[in-house]
Prior knowledge:
Shape: elongated
Helix content: 55-70%
Number of domains: 2
Order of helices and strands: HHHHH
Amino acid sequence: MLKAFLSERDCPCPQCEYNLRNLQGTRCPECGEELILRVNVAEPRQKLLITGLIGLSAGCGLNGLLLIYAVIQVILSHDTGEPEFWFIIGAGFAVEGAALIAWLRAWRWMRRRPAPSRLRWALGCWLLTLIDLLIFSFNIR
């Protein structure tokens, strides 16, 4: 059935994205992965992926808003403020932003991971945001 299905269709290998049109066996000729034909949901459960996305977005958003606030204060009062403040929120924004971009780029890879692995990654996103918030809270008075 797999050969019949792929005889008339351009379909990428789920592992390496090689075009499987006219496949002669049950393995991808590019990466060698065993392939099966099955019925599956169009979009796997994504609640843990979205949970991680929200965690990273919260941290990035907090630091972004603080940066905007600091810029407005500089414009209005012409006081550049404490360098430590700029460093902490700038570093927090850079780290959370980089993690957010990495999370979005790894979305397809992450969808294929088992649920316990996705849970650990999502908790890691929230942990990063919590650490960022704690660093900000303990260093800014």
